[in-house]
Amino acid sequence: MKHALKTGALLGLIAVAGLGTGCSKQSAKQATFHGETTKASVVIAARHLKPDDVIRALQTFVPPGEHDPYLMFASGGQNGQVLVYGIPSMRLLDEIPVFTPDSMAGWGFGGSGNEVLRGGDIPASKLGPAKELNWGDLHHCNLSESNGVYDGQWLFANDKANGRIAVVDLRDFATKQIVKNPIFYNDHGAVFVTPNTTWLIEASQYSAPLGGAYQDITNYEATYRGEITFWRFDRQTGRIDTNQSFAIELPPYWQDLAISGKLVSHDWIFCNSFNVARYHGDDLDGQPSFEAGATSRDTDYLHIIHLSQAVKDFQAGKFERVNGFPVIPLKTEIADHILYFTPETKSPHGVDVSPDGHYIVVSGKLDPHVTVYNFDKIQKAIAAGKFEHDPYGVPVMPMEDTVEARVEVGLGPLHTQFDNKGFAYTTLFLDSAIAKWSLGGSAETLHPGVKSWTLIQKLPVQYNPGHLAVIGGDTTHPTGQYLLSLNKWSIDRFDNVGPLYPENLQLVDISGKEMRLLSDTPLGMGETHYAQIIAADKVHPWQAYPEVGWNPLTQSVDTNAAMPGQEGIIRNANHVTVNMTIVRSHYTPELVQVNQGDDVTWHITNIERTPNATHGLAISAYNINLTINPGQAETVHFVADRAGVFSFYCTKFCSALHLEMAGYLIVKPATTQTAQR
Ligand code: CUK
Ligand code: CUA
After folding, report:
1. What does the pLDDT average to over 254-278?
2. Are residue 272 and residue 382 in the same domain, yes or no?
3. To pair with 463 at 20 to 30 A between CA atoms, which of 125, 322, 355, 572?
4. Does 577 reside within a domain?
């Protein structure tokens, strides 16, 4: 591959560049190029680059006009969106709006974006009025998989704040569906896919009464619960089939990350929990805080769930309904061998499955080890039936029967990813480092002298990493090569921009024996919790919508789309339908005259076939802003309740006569009095 230059070749380039043994302090001080910018040695000296900087630059630089070989889909955290980066350049290529309105994409200001966003709202119920949700805390985006590897077709994401999940279609990089969890207000272990994307896993986080109703907190043990929802994904429709989805009830521990097994362990789901102490306050009453109370036990429980058994029960109708949604009760799960626990060191965070599916890696944030469970041992322990039981009767297998190894990696281990050489990489939140360690079996065989379950190297990162991402690092076929450390703090790494600091995404080379830091990329628009990296040639987005009149929600031509030759304004009593087409550089029609109070349905189709010839429709005062790509048809609906003369115009500088791409919405007042205002 063009960008995968070997270190040897790089050193050769450095020699050519005349760097020699490194730049002296003296030359580094001359911060001018003297016009000799074509001479590498001059540039290197003027920019004060050290030899390793030059290698790093050569490894990550993508020449103007060339493409990155990898795409990283990264969660945008509190901005509620998904970010797409090119790797290794770390150029930000796209922001896919998901949970939050976005002006560039015209998302949430009329049209199909509104339809998707409003689909995730909380409906009115006997508990209270409807709640419109206009932001999300997006933690995990997950690419769809076929046979345990990314297939480049779909992307899923969760909103921790409101317990929602979203479906993004990678044909047009647009969100198609947002589903509000009907029984829980928050989630965290979401969205994680099963190896063929049959099920999407969404685990709740902070225990609460299922269905969201009130219960006195003093009844915590009896009435508060956790749950995991299994959403059925239908590739044909490209939607979650909510009628084929169900949840399982869990004890009121705070469930955390969840993940699907793969290969040998496929069909099993693993989920961490914390606050198995079931601590619930109250600090104003003199009780300890949650951070003390929730961590008062030495161990929490790794949840081990037999998915196909749960599916069987769901299909057999062995569930109760909460807010109309099927939930398999705890007692049924226990009776039907769906749910098991095994202890994990307290306050765990990450749970990750090795590429071969044999090992489940759990990190307890307060334990310097990662704990590696062996799937075969878990199966044997289940068969042996030597259980204790938690207060709800869930069988608990002894830790010594399920654990394969404990590897001391450092302070504050969180998340783990894998490469193709038998190594695992774990972020160390407190140490501000990445630990590279060897898996059992594979590393030993591949690398003579490397012992199994051993720490190999710790690479300092800046600072406090959360998740990390390796190319394909959570699939059955990781690539390795690059690792992204998704750091929470940036302290001194960038120019000061005030008290809200950017996050720091650090690119690390893991192709050699030792990990090497390549670059820093600040992110000043959200906190990237999770990311996945896929080869760019595995994703096949359209350059323009396939046909004119394309509805991005149905991914087909819309029979209601405005078509060329049929433009016009149709009145039916106080219902007005506008059929509008757009092409460089005009709207047809350009004058839209209605009466105050009219109910307006405005169809607009971009009839361009030229890639990139995107137009906008912004209507002053009406909070309407659409982005309409070539071929795309949109419909916006509003009541013309404010009289006056409003301009509408194209928001994308699409041509030399872009400023002329405008028109008037003229709303005739209902009374003369309004006209004078
Ligand atoms: S989480 Cu943020 S660092 Cu939501 Cu997966 Cu671990
Ligand atoms: Cu169309 Cu500017």
Report:
1. 97
2. yes
3. 355
4. yes
Expressed in angstroms and rounded, the spacing between residue 628 Cα and the centre of ligand 2 is 10
User: Which residue's CA is the nearest one to ligand 1's atom 1?
Assistant: 529
Q: How far is CA 383 from the centre of its chain?
A: 37
Is residue 654 in contact with ligand 2, taking CB distance under 6 Å?
A: yes
Q: Are residues 571 and 427 in the same domain?
A: no
128 inside domain: no
Q: How far apart are CA 234 and CA 218, in angstroms?
A: 41
Strand, helix or coil for residue 41 = helix
Q: How many CB atoms lie under 10 A from the CB of residue 224?
A: 18
C-alpha to C-alpha distance for 182 and 191, rounded to whole angstroms = 16
Domain boundary among 518, 538, 558: 538
Alpha carbon nearest to ligand 1 atom 2, residue = 529
Pocket probe mutation, ligand 1, options 139, 256, 361, max atoms within 8 Å of Cβ: 139
- Per the DSSP assignment, residues forming a β-bridge with 587 are 582
Residue 107 lies in a domain: no
Ligand nearest to the CA of 653: 2
Contact, 561 vs 549, CB < 8 A?
yes
Ligand at minimal distance from the CA of 626 is 2
Q: How many domains does the chain have?
A: 3
Question: What tokens appear for 298 in the block?
Answer: 């030495």
User: Is pTM, for the whole model, over 0.85?
Assistant: yes
Characterize the bridge pairing of strands 403-408 and 413-418: unpaired
Token pair listed for 274: 């914390």
pLDDT in tens, 596-641: 999 999 999 999 999 999 999 999 999 999 999 999 999 999 999 9
Pocket (CB within 6 angstroms of ligand 1): 139-140, 188, 257, 349, 414-415, 466-467, 529-530
614 and 504 assigned to the same domain: no
| Residue at 123 is within a domain | no
Domain hosting residue 625, numbered range: 550-676
